[in-house]
Amino acid sequence: MPYITNAKKDGDWVKLGKQFVDTVALESSSLGLTPAQVTGLSTTFDNFDTAYTDLETQKATLESAVSVKDSTKASFEALVRRYAKQFRGNVTVPDALLELLNVAPHTVKPSNTSPTQPLALVVTTNSVGQVFLKWNRNGNRSGTTFWIQTKSSANGPWVMVNTTTTSKFTLENYPAGTAAWFRVVAVRRNLHSAPSDFVTIYSAEDESSNLSIAA
Questions:
Q1: Which residues pair with 132 in a beta bridge?
Q2: For residue 2, what pLDDT is reported?
Q3: What is d(CA 8, CA 80) in angstroms, rounded to the nearest whole number?
Q4: Are 132 and 168 in contact (CB under 8 A)?
Q5: Cα(first)–Cα(last) distance of the chain, in Å?
Q6: Which residues of the chain does CATH 2.60.40.10 include?
Q7: Which class for 28: exposed (0-12), middle (13-18), buried (19 or more C-beta within 10 A)?
Q8: What pLDDT score does 118 carry?
Q9: Are strands 145-151 and 168-171 parallel, antiparallel or unpaired?
Q10: Other beta carbons less than 10 A from residue 59's beta carbon
Q11: Domain 119-201 class?
């Protein structure tokens, strides 16, 4: 048990405080305290002790109340989930009524909105055969797939390099100095965006306003 002046917990102050007050009352003369001082000390302790006891009682009441709340919530939640499942399984219940109940509709229709054209494609290279592509998603939501396409000449066919759901891709082991054209297409639910503007590497050609980006 710590010395009273080093006590931190309220419970320690109650236990040590009572011993302190009782001892002062018995040894007030030796300690040089007047009866009034002893009374003041005892009254202050009694006030603290009463407040501490009241608080502990309230804590116990609160814990009990929280337990009751959690139990009743669990019962209510179970019923709501049961009835929500029942309502959604009843095709005669209209979606408008389910909406009033804040219950999901019978069928969530998938979005058939076409993905948007990827923007601001940037392609850079380094001396160890890596080609780094990054672009702006342009609002395409999570789950959109991006096709990375390339061709080896200005008039050649576009071929698939790889796919990703992020807005960047790294091509490994690319022959340094070999010209290539790159573009990105967004794909979602079999719908395709317009391709991004193309970017060339290791090429002096300028098919449009795109600039070649070398290492």
A1: 124, 170
A2: 73
A3: 47
A4: yes
A5: 72
A6: 119-201
A7: middle
A8: 95
A9: unpaired
A10: 10
A11: mainly beta
How many other C-beta atoms lie within 10 A of the C-beta of residue 144? 21
| Per-residue model confidence as pLDDT tens digits over 30-75 | 999 999 999 999 999 999 999 999 999 999 999 999 999 999 989 9
Single out the residue of 130, 147, 135, 138 nearest to residue 199, CA to CA. Answer: 135
From CA 116, how far away is CA 188, in angstroms rounded?
Answer: 10
Element containing residue 124 per DSSP (H, E): strand 119-125
Q: Coil, strand, or helix at residue 97?
A: helix
Q: Which residues, listed in sequence order, are joined to residue 181 by a DSSP beta bridge?
A: 151, 200
- Name the CA radius of gyration of the chain, rounded: 38
Q: Which residue has the tokens 């600039």?
A: 211
Whole-model pTM: value is 0.46
3-state secondary structure of 189: coil
Distance CA 133, CA 200 (A): 11
- Residue 193: predicted pLDDT: 94
Instruction: List pLDDT tens digits, range 6-31.
Output: 988 999 999 999 999 999 999 999 99
Q: Which helix (H) or strand (E) holds 42?
A: helix 35-89
Q: Name the residue with higher pLDDT: 215 or 200.
A: 200
Dihedrals φ, ψ of 210, to 5°?
A: -70, 145
Task: Collect all residues with Cβ–Cβ distance below 8 Å to 126 and sequence separation of at least 6.
Answer: 132, 215
Q: Check: CB of residue 41 under 8 Å from CB of residue 72.
A: no
Q: Which two tokens stand for residue 56?
A: 């502990």
Residue 111, phi then psi, degrees to nearest 5 = -75, 130
